[in-house]
Amino acid sequence: MIDIHTHVLSNLRSDDGPKDPEKSRLMIQKAAEEGVTKIVATPHMLTPIPERREEIYEAIRALGPTEAEIIPGSEIFADDVVLKSSESLICLGDSNYLLIEFPRAQLPEYTEDIFFDLQTRGYECIFAHPERNGSIVNDPNILVDLIEAGVLVQINAGSILGRYGKDSQKTAEILLEHDMVHFIATDMHSDRNRYYSLKEAVEVAKKYTDRAVDLVTTNPELILSGEYLEPPEPKEYKKRGFWFFRF
Ligand SMILES: [Fe+2]
User: Fold this and answer.
1) How confident is the model at residue 235 (pLDDT cuts 50, 70, 90)?
2) Which of 53, 118, 123, 151 could form a disulfide with 146 if both were Cys (CB 3.0 to 4.6 A apart)?
3) What's the pLDDT band for 236 if we cut at 50, 70, 90?
4) 100 alpha carbon to ligand 1 midpoint, in Å?
5) How far is ligand 1, taken at its centre, from the CA of residue 231, in Å?
6) DSSP string of 79-131?
């Protein structure tokens, strides 16, 4: 398995991962024990930090040999200043994929424009844990248009396992059932959390989609090796008791 969203490195500015490399090693060890072979380290990028790439490489080097391969990446906050500075836009490994996070409560009105702008600058975009976002919880179909515009979707293992409450869990199930998920990742921040299990999340996800295993194997492998991921057609979610029409 491959985990494309983690806060596994220690002591990085604006990140909230483990306190020291020893804790990082514990997190990596736990992941490796359940079959994770590659971990993308995606520290928060909340403000531009010019020497960020070097910081990440240095933190990876400081770990020494690890049971799973650690690949540099970033979780980029969709903020004007951050997005304008190309030095902030650290892709996942050698790919041109960016992991983008939005404010939790609701999506900005210009969300589609943010993705479009990044795409025209040559990047591919992955929307990080939309099932935790108020706008998506209220209307999962917002993702249909984004996916049709080329955006890929990553949900958290913890959402599937109920870590963030019923709304995020239900939304994760809806997204899985409607082919609106392309990756499951842990978004792990520490070595002490029972919800950071890709293996358990995939087992549960199998109830909602036949593609559950691909979401932690084939799909992340494709993007990390720079190949094209052809996503399935997302299905419109129809709330029970209501008819929805798209215009
Ligand atoms: Fe994260």
Assistant:
1) very high
2) 151
3) very high
4) 9
5) 23
6) -HHHHH-GGG---STTSSEEEEE--SS---TTHHHHHHHHHHTT-EEEEE-GG
Distance in Å, CA 5 to ligand 1 centroid: 6
Long-range contacts of 8-11 (CB under 8 A, 24+ apart): 8/39, 8/41, 8/70, 8/188, 9/41, 9/43, 9/56, 9/59, 9/60, 9/63, 9/70, 10/59, 11/59
Question: What span, in angstroms and rounded, lies between the C-alpha atoms of 179 and 229?
Answer: 14
Ligand 1 centroid to 155 CA: how many Å? 10
CA of 148 relative to ligand 1 center, distance in Å:
24
| Ligand 1 centroid from CA 3, angstroms | 12
Task: List domains and CATH numbers for the chain.
Answer: 2-224 (3.20.20.140)
In angstroms, rounded to a whole number, what is the distance separating the alpha carbons of residues 26 and 13?
21
* pLDDT per position as a tens digit, 69-94: 999 999 999 999 999 988 889 999 99
